[in-house]
Write a structure and sequence with these properties.
mainly alpha, binds heme C, Cytochrome Bc1 Complex, Chain D, domain 2, 5 helices, 110 residues
């Protein structure tokens, strides 16, 4: 019984690790922008603020002043951030998830 479980679950785990689309940590392909934001970004950007550089919050106004107006711009920052911010590569946050987080930021922080 226990052995059956093991032989069944090992390939599954391998599959999850190999999956680049991240379908194992998303339920039914639906990504929760708030949940992902809280997980990856909220440490430094609580409520869309910025605990490290108070000039660079995620409010629409602050971002616009820095030339960030679309989800594409936000994703570009995640891939190649300024000083003090963690780099989020394709493996940590796949494009699809990055887009959902970016859209969440744009519609949440005014
Ligand atoms: C370790 C802390 C930290 C984490 C985690 C972090 N950031 Fe940042 N973020 C910063 C800092 C510091 C800056 C300012 C960098 C600079 O000087 O250009 C910044 C800037 C930004 C900006 C530009 C804001 C502006 O007004 O110019 C965006 C957009 C952004 N972060 C998005 C994110 C997203 C999305 C996540 C999560 C996927 C995230 N950040 C996670 C620290 C962090």
């Amino acid at each position: 019984m226990a052995q059956n479980c093991l032989t069944l679950s090992l390939p599954m785990v391998a599959l999850c690790l190999l999956a680049t689309a991240g379908f194992c940590d998303t339920e039914g392909g639906k990504i929760d922008g708030k949940k992902e934001f809280d997980k990856h970004c909220a440490v430094c950007h609580p409520n869309g603020g910025n605990t490290i550089n108070s000039q660079k919050t995620l409010s629409k106004k602050a971002m616009k002043a820095n030339g960030i107006t679309s989800s594409k711009d936000i994703i570009a920052i995640m891939r190649k951030p300024g000083p003090g911010m963690t780099v989020f590569d394709q493996k940590t946050i796949p494009d699809k998830e990055a887009k959902v987080i970016a859209d969440y930021i744009l519609k949440t922080f005014k």
